[in-house]
Amino acid sequence: MIIKKVKDYMSTPVNVIERNEPIQRARNLMFKYSIGRLPVMDNGKLVGIVTKYDITNRISQAAPEWRRRPIDKVPIQVVMTEKPITIFPDATMPQAAELMIENDISGLPVEKDGEIVGVITSRDMVRHFSEQDISSTVQELMSKNILNVHRHHTIGHVLEEMNVQGISRALVYEDNRTPVGIVTRSGLTFSDIMGPKDDMETKNIKMTRKESTAGRKQNRYVRQMPFVAEDVMTSPILSLTPETNAVEASKTLAEKHIIGMPVVKDNDVVGYFSADEIIAEIGRWK
């Protein structure tokens, strides 16, 4: 295997946000540049980091006076993680992976001489792994921790289950054993279901009367319903077999710009192979 340094894979230049800027701006920057985290600055000094996880979860945990405000009025400092862990450009990729694992994070600001010069993320780890020459299979590295939800489960329920199990994706099922889609935390952050207070929006369902004698259907009323898994899921989903070479699988993740895929054997989902498993493997390299 080839051990490289953080500076070989880090993203640069770095998009940052000031601590007093609104959450809405952070979300817009993440969407525009397809990124999952932003270093938070205060007069040129790193004071925090905000991620997609923070945006989808922490506003609901904030003090009541913040929860009542639209997200274009809530400053980043309310939801950011203070004193973020950083890494040096000359650190190795396994050292970065170890830091991510130990602190349960998926990205690190890269700091040199007091300045943020880059960001290293789970996607960079996938790219690094995809360039290796190792024989491990998906089955050897995959996780068996799988969250299954029904397509009619509300987004609130899906998020709650993600938080309980500590994972960032859920496979969506109908009434059989084959998944029909996948919901990810990233997808929730960038979807239209988040309301102005970052609460879950509702959708309008038109309820109709039976046909009248003239043969016309008349709208009876409009009912508000919560968004459910099928409203935001990605479908169809790509899958892997347990025998697939792990490096080849990581190349697919990198090429498709996705974080993970379910592992299927005999039409049953038996695991999940993602950036998390790749980071754990890289962290074991010395």
UniProtKB/TrEMBL annotation:
Residues 10-65, 80-136, 142-200, 233-286 form the CBS domain. Signal peptide: none annotated. This is CBS domain-containing protein. GO terms for biological process: methionine biosynthetic process. Keywords: Amino-acid biosynthesis, CBS domain, Methionine biosynthesis, Repeat. It comes from the Archaea. It comes from Methanothrix soehngenii. InterPro entries: CBS_dom, CBS_dom_sf, CBS_domain-containing.
